[in-house]
Amino acid sequence: MPLSLLKYGLTKQPKLQRHFPPTPELKNSYDVVIVGGGGHGLAAAYYLAKNWGITNVAVLEKSYLAGGNTARNTTIVRSNYLTPEGVQFYDESVKLFQNLSNELDYNILYSERGHLTLAHTDAAVRTARWRAEVNKHLGVDSELIYPDEIARLCPQLNLGDDVRYPILGALYHPPGALARHDGVAWGYARRAAEYGVEIHTQTEVTGFDIEKGKVVGVKTNRGNIQCGKVLQAVAGMSSEVARMADFKLPIKTIPLQACVSEAVKPFLDPIIVSGSLHVYVSQSSRGELVMGASAEAYPLYSTRSTLEFKEELMMHLLEMFPFVGKLRVLRQWAGMTDMTPDFSPVMGLTPIENYYIDAGWGTWGFKATPVCGKRMAETIATGKIPDLIKPFELERFYRNEQVGERGAASVGH
Amino acid sequence: MSASLNSMRLLQSTGLYLDRSKTISFQFNGQSFQGFQGDTIASALAANNCKLLSRSFKYHRPRGILSMSGQDSNTLVQIGDEPNVRADTRAIEEGMQVQAQNVIGSLEKDYGSLIGLIGRFLPVGFYYKAFYKPKGAWRYWEKLIRRMAGLGKIDPGSEIEYTDKQYRFTDVTVIGGGPAGLSAALEAADNGATVILIEENPILGGSLNYARFKTDRDQVYRIRNELVERVSSHSNIEVLTQAQCGGWFEDNWLSILTPGRLFKLRSKAVVIASGSFEQPAVFRNNDLPGVMLGSAAQRLIRLYGVKPGQSAVVMTANEDGYGVALDLLDAGVAVAALIDMREQISLSDLSQAVVAKKIEVLNGHTIYEALPVAGNRGIRGVKVAAISGEGKVVDETRTIDCDLACISVGYTPAAQLICHFGGRLIYDESISMLKLDGMPKHGDKCKAIAAGSLNTVFDLQQVLADGKNAGGSAVAIAGIGVKPALGQKLLSSAVEQNHPWPIFSHPQGKEFVDFDEDLQIHDIEQAVAEGYEDLNLVKRYSTVVMGPSQGRQSALNNLRIATKAAGNPLQGLSITTQRPPFHPEPIQLLAGRSFQPVRRTAIHHRHIELGAQMMPAGNWLRPAYYGLPEQSENAVEQEALAIRNGVGLIDVSTLGKLEIRGTDAAEFLNRMYTFSYLKQPVDRLRYALMLDETGVIIDDGIAARLSENHFYVSTTSGGSDSVYRSMLHWNAQWRLDVDITNVTSAYAGISIAGPGSRDVLQELNCDVDLSADAFTYSEVRRGQLNGIAACLLRVGFVGELGWEIHVPSSQARYLWDILLETGQKYGCRPVGVEAQRLLRLEKGHIIVGQDTDGLTVPEEAAMSWAIAKKKPFHIGKRSVEILANKKQTRRLVGFTLPKKSVLPQESNLTLKDDHIVGRITSVARSSTLNEIIGLAYVHPEQSDVGTSFDIKLSNGNRLSTKVVALPFYDPNGKRQEI
Amino acid sequence: MKLMTCPLNGERNISEFVYGGEVVDMPNPAACSDQEWSAYLFIEENTKGIVKEWWMHAASSYWFIAERNTETNEIIRTFPSSELYMQRVDFRAAKE
Lengths: 413, 978, 96
Known about the structure:
The structure holds 3 protein chains of 3 kinds. Chain A has 10 helices and 19 strands. By secondary structure, chain A is an alpha+beta fold. Chain A is globular and about 65 Å long. Chain C is built from 1 helix and 6 strands. Chain C starts with a strand and ends in a 16-residue tail after the last strand. In chain C, a hairpin with a 3-residue loop joins strand 1 and strand 2. Chains A and B meet through helix 1, strand 4, helix 5, helix 7 and helix 9 of A and strand 6, helix 3, helix 4, strand 11 and helix 13 of B.
């Protein structure tokens, strides 16, 4: 038994410490106002304080702490992207994740399971090899593997050819992991608060004060504040918040649904993704299957659930795991995602001076939490865009340039 | 176990669900039990005085019946390969093997319960606080902790039981066959609506089947029997029993799950009469077998004829508890005391009846603690104390012996279906109850009405009236007949139902708030104290309400405890969001039969007869090659050589085929494709390259001008639908005079290619002059071929003399047969996709989607030749012009390697100064050319013929090669023009 | 399953329809700036509220326009595209 728990258990009246203080009164002014108290915003706050000594920071969250997409994603972490820009960016994220429990002194339950992207057509095999080759060249552990090796890693998978889309190969990414999504946000929040960052929940931004193209204040439902700089990190609501600051984004808000089964004893270690079948599935530390499919077909600012989502997902899931038919779906939910034309995020400067953007994460936002927080903090603190995130600037769309992740993106969780 | 067989079974007169003429044997943990037809696992075990059903998730505490209605996780068992079965609603079957789950050892002796001893070392959220030091330690702890996870087991050998789905349509759907639902269904049906009534239990009646309502039970039964009889015999009502509504979705789309079928039901109006869940009280050991909800005891008695215990204490905060006491007495259970938490002495008929039976009633008291028998497998008594304040008792306690404690301290509306879809349950302090905050609004096509205790209406007459009102409203919404006059809005009768604070903490804990997750009062308080005071954070940090019952018994008390701990008022607060489904839903029932249709060409069966190995191409199946898989290389080589040296037939039916007709046909193509089509002569072919508005290549094909105003255009196999749709979409905006028809399935295409192909065709009865002078390369003719109307396109995709012959699909197999037969003496053979790909690669033709990707623009793919620069518009024009002014980063080139070289693979990278600049998109060994040939993206600076570049193989080795001119084969295109 | 009313085929499950994006006017490609063109391609209004969208009934390949509330998913109205696109569109080459 770990010492910390022993100590806790042996204390008669263990003194409970708040992990973060209650929402304080708003001050008149902050050096940096972060709009959005999800994983990204909280991570940025933490790195601003820790790496750059900027602590006069307010994180504004319209609902409860990390209650948006941070609370709704399927917690997958990986870096097996297709483009060198994508791979390098997410590789830094994976490395930060690997040490994050110790960095934050908060166990984020990081669980390296290995990640298999199944290929059911020769075109998908080609794409898997392409990703593997790019990954390997950049030092990321990925390999195209074939059914015999897939069987060794995940003997439960149906590798037969009695299905509509037999499995021909897979992109295997050993560092693929799961992490406790809430824990990541709470860990960042806790340490950011220790540095003096203020976290304001139930605080909704209603507008911005912009003077001569420069943001100088933020209006909220709890009053107006002055600010040096603003970071917008509000996945799902990015266009709406940007509209308040009078600029537009290359984003459509599209719901992504997911569901969990009841808990059963562990039987599935790796994270399994199938682009052709539009399924991704892993088994959580609680024993639930956590499952999702591709995003919906049309934009919607709603987290409503549909029956069709479950019907199709389960039909495909049974092709891969025909023996889980009697397991039951316990709960389904949805998040609102920012979909961009090139399946890549939007990070960095905006047309408004001192107003920074962190948006467009599609279905990949959770896995970028540490790196995005760290690099956006650097951007805000130095005013310079780090090379790592330069390819993802908003301006690229005005130049008719896209990041080339489209080739790998059908279901890329 | 010493209990005699069915020792707790009551006399014949009770047990609504039972057919006592049929005895059923089953096994529980290897021991044989008997029950009657209609028994559930839990009721049959209870009849045999077996109370212990499961072990809890975290502390492995013994658990037994709680709700007896399938609404809690105390009764989860494993049946064969089926995990997490609710034993209190699953009917027994002959020979059924029921096992306890999540036990280490046995259900009786579960070593997992030792965790309870160290419970104080495992506070809520403990895993966030430990196990990660020193760095890397988590890896080991994780394995141990994961082993404890999960409840039941999945059997990897289990097989799917495919079930069908059914679509249903009705005017009114009523969910819930209790008093409100029955009454609603009747009202709707009487007013002319067709009604489907959904009931999750085996028979109709709901609470009328077990609850007391009045001193004279027979009166309730009479009401019940009359309602059920009228509903069952009503010609407008269809009853589905053992059917659960999983969700109410957009536009009144309901999922109805029955054991063997998923119904998808569209209803004009929906009445939701799903009732309420009785709520537990929170005190020490409130989770042990023998402590159950009052309604559970009544269900055991009335539905299953089972005596729930020998000696009982009833705790209540409403009149229902008095009914429970009377029912217990009727069933021969001694009632040691009735603990009424209310100060005020009840003077109702029910309470008077209880007093008349000489039962001791203690007002203003509570059970403070249940006293366990050895091993916590039941209770031997309860400690009772007077309530001195909210959650507080006086020091003096009194022990009352009993083996059963029945709890009736309040209800929570079973409003899941409404809350899934935007409804909210908010706390109303005036009735200490969660109450629906109105109905969510979803437009005219999506309307539901709540009825009965969902509206916090509990008096039977009021419930019936509320149901009737709802039925009337449903008819009005459904637009059937005359709108009936609505009765007066009912007043809530819930004042006396819920105790405001049935929660008593104990210095030694074990007062469970959430049975699923083993959470106690201090766990919830701790989450709040650590800063997770928002109810959503309490949930996420502690996992309260996240278990299999999704908070049915814990949401209310958790709300109370967490809110008080945070120092906030309860009034108006909402519980955390509820999400579908209502009950956990079997994956196989949702999945149904796999429906993933495949497209086959008209010649498909000939390919199979010829030994083809089929491969998917979009939704289509195409022959990859003809022959055995182990000889695939040879087969592909021979097929390719057949076309180069003799004749080959390729089924190209999967190509998309569109007909564009009208005075603007040429203008339309001119906009859709990059080339110029206005001046394309009739009877000529032209390459057709399609870009999207960003300038990216999305499709290609051939445009044949059949007459001045008529084009026949092919698309890629995967692109026909999207190209067709895109054309229609554009023309909805442009309004050109064209008619666009997708004839992909109407026509089949056979490509005949090779030096001998003209000879073969000329042996047929063909009214088209096929001679080299009369029918030149890149021309199209229509004519008759052995009496079949055919369109012949002289194309050169594989680089030899050849035609694509398009004929009505119905004629394709005949044509295939006749070509193959006629061609025999010319060495004609069928050729698959793989050889076709090799042949086109020899010619340097790209395949869209293989040699291009989601961002490839024409210049990168060396396709600028296919763009007419002078025309005013094509879809990608503006973007192509913008891109022309930018620096390119890659370019598609040809390369060769010696035949003996290692064969690189498609997607191997190309490098410049160790930086990735591109990849191989196509590569193959060519027997014809006696070398390896391929296409690859390289840096534009490397793209001149003769420039060398590096290929990185999958194993990390590098190969150096040089750019060569394209095409590799027959560079002047002489062979296709002969 | 949500319902949608096709102006041609009547009320159908929404799974029978294909979404075609918001109704956006193309800037004159011969006259607009590079930036205007790129914004047309990539930048979205992404309105939270009532929008006009292209939809197609897949089985009949019929394109029409729907007014839909992107916050509630309520479809307010569907109508033939000819209501908005009444005239033939022609393109002229950019002036030298």
